[in-house]
Amino acid sequence: MNAFPSQRPEKRLRIATATLGGCFGCHMSLLDIDERILELAKIADFDRSPFTDIKHCGPSDIGLIEGGVTNSENVHVLREFRANCRTLIAVGACAINGGLPAQRNPIDIGDLLREVYCERVDENPQIPSDPELPLLLDKVYPIHEIVRVDYAIPGCPPSADALWKFLTDLIGGRTPRLDYAHFRFD
Amino acid sequence: MFPLENAETKQGLRRIAIDPVTRVEGHGKVTLLLDDDNHVHQARLHIVEFRGFEAFIEGRPYWEVPVTVQRLCGICPVSHQLAAVKAMDLIAGYERLTPTAEKLRRLMHYGQILQSHAVHFFHLASPDLLLGFDSEPTKRNILGVAAQFPDIAKQGIFLRKYGQEVIRHVSGKRIHGVGAIPGGVSKALTDVERDELRRDVDTMIQWARDAVRLVARIHTTHPEFYDSFGEFRASMMSLVGPDGALELYDGALRARDADGGLIFDGAPCASYNEFLQEEVKSWTYMKFPHIRALGAEAGWYRVGPLARVQTCDFIATPLAEAERKNFLAAGGGKPRHGTLLYHWARMIEALHAAETIRDLLDDVEIVGTDLIGEKGERREEAVGVIEAPRGTLIHHYRVGADDLVKYCNLIVSTTNNNQAMNEAVRSVARSFIDGNEVTEGLLNHIEVAIRAYDPCLSCATHAIGQMPLQVDLVDSSGALVSRRAKNFSAA
């Protein structure tokens, strides 16, 4: 298992993470590094992330994005990450190609909503339409169709060991490489 | 109409948003409407994501569904796999599982209860309880806890790791594995794997017990505060076993009112829609389930740990039952309704999960190799219900003779808590925000109340919104790929 280089970076790193149209499984896989998270904490701080109370992404070294782009809010969050993160990484199937949620892509969005909201509901069937709700996109888009992406880590989700190998390579100044065992698509 | 759900007029009110709600799973935001004197006129928890699983599952082969619906949620994938596979067992003609298959499914489920409760309490919620609701926001997270309370953080990390390893040994992967298949399970547990899990189980039971004591200790520092924070009277619902025991894998539905009286009992899962119905509101993606006989105003209820430890008559494992009795005694024997009591109940369940895992590992049938039941008559329709970490989870399917799904309806645990979470937000807004200068720390009080329910907001998303806006999708060179504007109406 890779360890961080003994030459620690001069300044503490900042890592930002976000879930767009995903299931949180990639974030859970990041927590699956288990006690190694304490190793990571010695050299890095988390910026915006579901694990912190920082609500907007500030200048960060590494941005990890889980999930595809399904609505207007996802677009805003993704652009904020791209503008603030030096290296932006698509983590998992949904960020890379839309993943399972993209199974809605062949269905007309109006039909989809009517089916879920009007046909399965006994009381007050209606499609929610409050201005507080972000606009849904016609399809689920992979993140590289909206912003430039530096790296992609496949998997549904990528394993903790794959994420660890990738991050230790990147932080250690090596070109990130995943060998066959770490490289999976399910 | 619920108090503080709708402001009488929005004229002259200012909007404060908590966006996004953090240290929860999925996408949510809270909006408050306040007047010039900071009085709260409206408070809402909005779920702002839609994925439409129920619709796009239609047309897929039934045997694929337990694996695909896991992708509703990365914290509780095992729950979705098991609820779906319980329905698909019946559809494929398997009325009964082999003892080994059922025990392996239970093992995986209790592994998930342990890991999910651990991640919620230690990684997501404990920063509020250990560091303070209005402590420094940049440090109010698991790493801040690790810096100040290294032993507690480590135990949390290892409890979760253990639960995840139980799941991996049964299903091949920690997240989105393939353990349960219609009719049984796909893999036996080897002696080597069982022995590896057995090695640490007593330590896990001890640490889970320590976690219950930790929450109980926090409560005894300010009992009035912890009992009354986000408190409101509510009915509660869960599965219970045939003997009235806390039962998380299989049972019948029971609901109690706020005083503990039975609303219904022994309700068969297959007829859930005779007991429950759902309502839609315009301002959130999440539906509002309630007990049909009581209607939307009176029929909403709570699910999850706080409901379960009070709907059941007892817990079958001794250490958890002792802690449940302590918990009830501390409330004077009456049903307890404080929102933060969820944490105490959740850790009692984590202890029960650890004890149950030990008992299953000690059962000789857990390493059996008879994994698939006897196949009988196919069915067209079935319902699978399970107690997920966050509460009652209902999967309902119809499958055609061509093996393709014709209908899918899901009532997800967090959806069951929709009204309860909104009530908790309003209760805290009344107590802490109303009439005060609004600070980050006070707003975090609202999130503390939401977090106590351990909401899984990705699971619960089924709808869409409209906004008067245009979204342009541009490629990396800046060229327009597509443009979407508000263009449809609620039909």
UniProtKB/TrEMBL annotation, chain A:
It comes from the Bacteria. Keywords: 3Fe-4S, Cell membrane, Iron, Iron-sulfur, Membrane, Metal-binding, Oxidoreductase. Its cofactor is [3Fe-4S] cluster. Residues 23-169 form the NADH:ubiquinone oxidoreductase-like 20kDa subunit domain. This is NADP oxidoreductase.
UniProtKB/TrEMBL annotation, chain B:
InterPro entries: Ni-dep_hyd_lsu (IPR001501), Ni-dep_hyd_lsu_Ni_BS (IPR018194), NiFe-Hase_large (IPR029014). Pfam families: NiFeSe_Hases. Its cofactor is Ni(2+). Keywords: Metal-binding, Nickel, Oxidoreductase. It comes from the Bacteria. The keyword Disulfide bond does not apply. Belongs to the [NiFe]/[NiFeSe] hydrogenase large subunit family. This is Ni/Fe hydrogenase subunit alpha. It comes from Candidatus Rhodoblastus alkanivorans.
